[in-house]
Specification:
There is one protein chain. The protein is mainly beta. Helix content is about 5%, strand content about 40%. The longest helix has 4 residues.
Length: about 110
C-alpha cells in the first residue's frame, strides 16, 4: 500500500475583542447615603461607563479588592464603611487580553 502525503494549513485570526485590553471608562458615584436595612449604616452607590471589550469588572476600595467578577456597571457598597471616614475607589475592567483601570474617586 502506498501512502499519500497531505499538507494541511491551519489559519487563525485574533478577534479585536480578544486581542486588546478593555478601553477607557469613567467611575462616578451618587452622594453617600445611610442604608436603613439592618444593620443600618453608611452606604455608597458607584457606577461607571462601560469599557469597550471588558468582560468583567473588579472593585477596589483603598487599594484593596472588595469585589471581583462584576458583570454590570454599578455597585452598591454598604459593608465595611464607617460614617465620617473617607474612602478611595477605583474599578478595574478586565478581559483575556489584560486590564484597564478607571479614575480614582474619593467618597
Amino acid at each position: 500500500t502506498k501512502l499519500t502525503p497531505y499538507l494541511i494549513t491551519l489559519l487563525f485570526w485574533a478577534t479585536p475583542a480578544l486581542s486588546q485590553r478593555p478601553g477607557a471608562f469613567n467611575l462616578s458615584f451618587q452622594s453617600p447615603v445611610c442604608d436603613t436595612a439592618p444593620p443600618a449604616g453608611p452606604a455608597v452607590r458607584l457606577s461607571w461607563t462601560a469599557a469597550s471589550r471588558a468582560t468583567t469588572y473588579d472593585l477596589y476600595r483603598n487599594g484593596a479588592l472588595i469585589r471581583s467578577g462584576i458583570t454590570g456597571t454599578s455597585f452598591y457598597n454598604s459593608t465595611g464603611l464607617t460614617a465620617g471616614q473617607s474612602y478611595t475607589y477605583f474599578v478595574r475592567a478586565r478581559n483575556t487580553a489584560g486590564t484597564t483601570d478607571s479614575n480614582n474617586i474619593n467618597v
